[in-house]
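Design a sequence for this backbone.
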């Protein structure tokens, strides 16, 4: 009789043993699938963290112009970047804020200063540290984006807007320091700075409420001589890429003095817990594969001992020993395949709560202060992919092969005559 057919008859005849094997394989395959799902979820979350949180590199130095910042920003390792070009400007049609504290010397600061507004030319206001970590918050409208490069727009502070009755869509005018150029700006956003007004007299351009954010080309239009940036912030994917960006900065800026600072605290606070879960998932897969092979190997070994009489009869009838090993392998593998299907159903039901419990707990341990406002806060998505099922099926069949072939070595040493004599 064909050993494959004989394996099927054996499975039907030994229903209890088949059910036990199926239960063991379902547990093994479910745990394996859970490990692969966790690996996939952590890989996706780590990629999202690299894209949304990333590592902020701040570059300062003489000779850092907007054109050089654009060259840095065009690098494939840079996800977002923001140059900052500050100037002072005169207000036209609006009344700037003034300090309520008397000016030293007994004079009130009632006289209108020459350049009371502090304008910051930016490309992406979301990368500014106060906006990124929440000390500045947009209360109406939006911030400055890369699409505003050709527009004359501004984001104003709430106190300045309230004093002048400004709202979204209103137009304000700012004048260059020499009074030769005036630019109308449309208010597209209003933000609130958490910094209170100073308790001592402060020049108007240093008051938090007199700070405006505009696109970099607007600053260049108001002050053509302002060539060097105060700083530029580049968001990259990982701390390892910072070394490559540093080498590029040395090449473009020369060996002169420049400040290169890497802020990877938020990245580490978010990514390290995710990486720990991914490492745990890989360890689970390896332990389950080894433990499953050992457990099933012991079970098959016990079954071989119980079926010595059957094996002796088959050997005495001329059955080859490798076919006996093949029969046991087919019996175990035939149980492994439906176990993969059951594990897939169980994975769709239980994987998401388990992932929320593990990855969600790791995210809750992260300090809110170290998490940027644009950091991903959604629960990890656990997807049952065909590739994961293929891996589980492959490992399951591998366990079947190892757990039957290794104990099956004992079959090669069996002799039908000795088996029949011992059974008598």
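Sequence:
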């Amino acid at each position: 009789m064909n050993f494959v057919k004989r394996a099927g008859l054996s499975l039907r005849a030994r229903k209890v043993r088949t059910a036990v094997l199926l239960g063991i394989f379902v547990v093994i395959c479910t745990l394996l699938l859970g490990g692969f799902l966790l690996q996939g979820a952590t890989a996706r979350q780590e990629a999202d963290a690299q894209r949304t949180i990333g590592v902020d590199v701040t570059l300062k130095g003489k000779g850092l112009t907007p054109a050089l910042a654009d060259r840095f920003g065009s690098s494939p390792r840079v996800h977002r970047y923001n140059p900052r070009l500050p100037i002072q400007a005169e207000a036209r049609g609006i009344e700037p804020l003034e300090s309520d504290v008397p000016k030293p010397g007994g004079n009130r600061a009632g006289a209108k200063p020459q350049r009371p507004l502090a304008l910051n030319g930016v490309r992406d206001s979301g990368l500014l540290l106060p906006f990124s970590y929440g000390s500045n918050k947009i209360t109406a409208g939006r911030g400055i984006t890369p699409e505003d490069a050709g527009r004359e727009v501004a984001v104003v502070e709430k106190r300045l807007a309230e004093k002048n009755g400004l709202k979204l869509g209103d137009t304000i005018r700012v004048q260059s320091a020499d009074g030769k150029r005036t630019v109308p700006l449309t208010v597209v956003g209003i933000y609130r700075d958490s910094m209170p007004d100073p308790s001592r007299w402060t020049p108007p351009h240093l008051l938090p409420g007199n700070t405006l954010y505009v696109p970099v080309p607007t600053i260049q239009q108001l002050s053509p001589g302002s060539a060097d940036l105060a700083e530029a912030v580049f968001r990259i994917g990982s701390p390892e890429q910072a070394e490559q960006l540093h080498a590029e900065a040395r090449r473009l800026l020369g060996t002169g003095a420049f400040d290169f600072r890497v802020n990877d605290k938020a990245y580490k606070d978010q990514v390290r817990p995710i990486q720990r879960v991914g490492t745990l998932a890989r360890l689970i897969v390896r332990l389950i594969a080894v433990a499953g092979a050992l457990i099933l190997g012991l079970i098959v070994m016990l079954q071989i001992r119980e079926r010595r009489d059957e094996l002796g009869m088959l050997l005495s009838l001329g059955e080859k020993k490798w076919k006996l090993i093949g029969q046991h392998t087919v019996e175990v593998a035939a149980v492994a395949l439906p176990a993969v299907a059951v594990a897939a159903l169980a994975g769709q039901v239980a994987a998401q709560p388990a992932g929320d419990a593990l990855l969600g707990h790791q995210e809750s341990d992260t300090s809110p202060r170290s998490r940027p406002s644009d950091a991903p806060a959604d629960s990890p998505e656990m997807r049952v992919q065909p590739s994961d099922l293929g891996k589980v099926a492959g490992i399951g069949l591998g366990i079947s092969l190892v757990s039957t072939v290794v104990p099956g070595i004992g079959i090669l040493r069996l002799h039908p005559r000795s088996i029949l004599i011992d059974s008598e």
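Residues 204 and 384 are 59 Å apart (CA to CA).
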